[in-house]
């Protein structure tokens, strides 16, 4: 793993019971298929094979279950990504950034995953609760990752913006190649060679 990432830990996974884990798995699958708003707690409990009473005992409300699902997804993705980077120690910034973009593309090829946080934000951003905070925390974590890889705050922020924009193009615009194209520009920015390719970041 690049030395700059040694202090970057994944967001914590929710602590729960076996019944809670079954509810998280069922809810996560249903949210991916149907959306968060369209999925009721009755259906989640039915798919998990667990009573609705147990669902409320474990999570208290649907919003807390949504937040726990997102926290688990964030944890799983970040652990996977850090393992990928750990397998490629001492790579230069441009290659590390390419690795992250490639990992994201592979991760989102699974229809059960997709861009979980982008889709969730569209449904929970107006709600001042845990779920929206988890999405924001995941985005902030990715920003810290790219800043660490680039070794420069401005370049890292630009790479992060390219990454999030490419995710949106893939999810909403149906453009699966967007991450590959964005990766090339992001790698040049991270490697400090963007000026030679007609890309000149604007100082704020």
Automatic annotation (TrEMBL):
Keywords recorded for this protein, A-Z: DNA-binding, Transcription, Transcription regulation
InterPro entries (UniProt xref): Homeodomain-like_sf, HTH_TetR, Tet_transcr_reg_TetR-rel_C_sf
Domain HTH tetR-type residues, every copy: 17-77
DNA-binding region(s) in UniProt: 40-59
GO molecular function, one term: DNA binding
Pfam families: TetR_N
PROSITE patterns given in the database record: HTH_TETR_2 (PS50977)
PANTHER family attached to this UniProt entry: HTH-TYPE TRANSCRIPTIONAL REGULATOR YJDC (PTHR47506:SF1), TRANSCRIPTIONAL REGULATORY PROTEIN (PTHR47506)
UniProt protein name: TetR family transcriptional regulator
């Amino acid at each position: 793993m690049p030395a700059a990432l040694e202090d970057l830990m994944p967001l914590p996974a929710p602590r729960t019971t076996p019944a809670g884990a079954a509810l998280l798995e069922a809810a996560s699958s249903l949210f991916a298929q149907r959306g968060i708003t369209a999925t009721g707690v009755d259906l989640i409990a039915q798919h998990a094979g667990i009573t609705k009473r147990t669902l409320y005992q474990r999570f208290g409300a649907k919003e807390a279950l949504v937040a726990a699902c997102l926290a688990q997804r964030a944890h799983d993705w970040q652990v996977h990504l850090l393992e990928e980077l750990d397998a490629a120690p001492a790579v230069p910034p441009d290659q590390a950034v390419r690795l992250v973009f490639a990992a994201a593309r592979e991760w989102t090829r699974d229809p059960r995953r997709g861009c979980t946080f982008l889709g969730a934000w569209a449904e929970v951003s107006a709600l001042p609760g845990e779920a929206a905070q988890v999405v924001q925390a995941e985005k902030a974590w990715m920003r810290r990752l790219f800043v660490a890889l680039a070794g420069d705050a401005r370049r890292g922020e630009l790479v992060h913006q390219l990454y999030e924009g490419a995710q949106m193009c893939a999810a909403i615009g149906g453009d699966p190649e967007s991450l590959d194209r964005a990766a090339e520009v992001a790698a040049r920015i991270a490697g400090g060679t963007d000026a030679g390719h007609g890309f000149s970041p604007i100082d704020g």
